[in-house]
Specification:
Blueprint lengths: L2 H9 L6 H12 L7 E4 L5 H12 L4 E5 L19 E2 L4 E2 L2 H10 L6 E5 L2 H5 L6 E6 L5 H11 L3 E9 L12 H11 L3 E7 L2 E6 L4
Parallel strand pairs: 1-2, 1-6, 2-5, 6-7
Antiparallel strand pairs: 3-4, 7-9, 8-9
The protein binds S-adenosyl-L-homocysteine and magnesium ion.
Length: 208
């Protein structure tokens, strides 16, 4: 990975450990089919820098989808709440400004296109086939399964589905990302390419 972008990605705010970020980059850089990348759940742009670095390398676009209002687990009183990301005027989480700054400072504005809205609302009208899909949005049961059902059908054969926060052992974290990983494998349409910490990369081997 480009050393400057690697340093930017590591320094960016977010919940992606360095080894998993690099594995995400490696999986994206290895994508051999044409088409754009899309991530569900951008937060402050950390994973978008890893994915954007790979997208730029192959002259693609990364669509970075988020409503920027935070997941359940980012709300006040939850584990991943960061109080300085609450807009004092609206009293709502607003990560869009930090996201834009991260992408700007990384020099990735030509490559990373923010899509600001609800995952299912955008997904219901989305038609572009995806070379890579990264799912890291809401981690509750309903949002995770809906993201999988909404977006995985857009991954082309030969394309990559990556999922974050997959914990095989329930003691390590919540179940829904693991459940959708299992759904992908059990569908028979995806095979595992790599596993690094809680990051999984799968390749689509056949249509649904
Ligand atoms: N990938 C990021 C972390 C994402 S955190 C990183 O590397 O740091 C999860 C994100 O999913 C939050 O920013 C939240 O706003 C977003 N999200 C949750 N539910 C969503 C939904 N229904 N539509 C769009 N974004 C959603
Ligand atoms: Mg995550």
């Amino acid at each position: 990975m480009d050393p400057e972008l690697l340093a930017r990605a590591r320094a960016a705010r977010g919940f992606m450990p360095p080894d998993e970020g690099l594995a995400l980059y490696d999986a994206a850089a290895a994508v051999a089919v044409t088409g754009p990348f899309l991530e569900v759940g951008s937060y402050c742009g950390k994973s978008a820098v890893y994915l954007g670095a790979a997208a730029r390398l192959s002259g693609r676009v990364l669509f970075a989808l988020d409503h920027h209002r935070g997941s359940e687990e980012n709300q006040p009183g939850w584990e991943h709440h960061e109080p300085d990301l609450v807009d004092p005027d609206t009293n709502k989480i607003d990560t869009l400004g930090t996201f834009r700054r991260t992408i700007h400072d990384a020099g990735l504005e030509p490559t990373v296109v923010a899509v600001v809205g609800d995952s299912v609302t955008v997904g219901s009208v989305w038609t572009a086939p995806l070379a890579l899909l990264f799912i890291d949005g809401g981690h509750g049961r309903e949002p995770a399964h809906r993201d999988f059902e909404t977006w995985a059908p857009h991954v082309v054969v030969g394309g990559t589905l990556s999922i974050h926060d997959v914990f095989c052992d329930p003691a390590d974290g919540g179940r829904p990302p693991y459940e959708i990983y299992c759904r992908a494998i059990d569908s028979g349409s995806f095979e595992e390419i790599s596993a690094t910490g809680s990051l999984r990369a799968l390749r689509r081997t056949k249509p649904d």
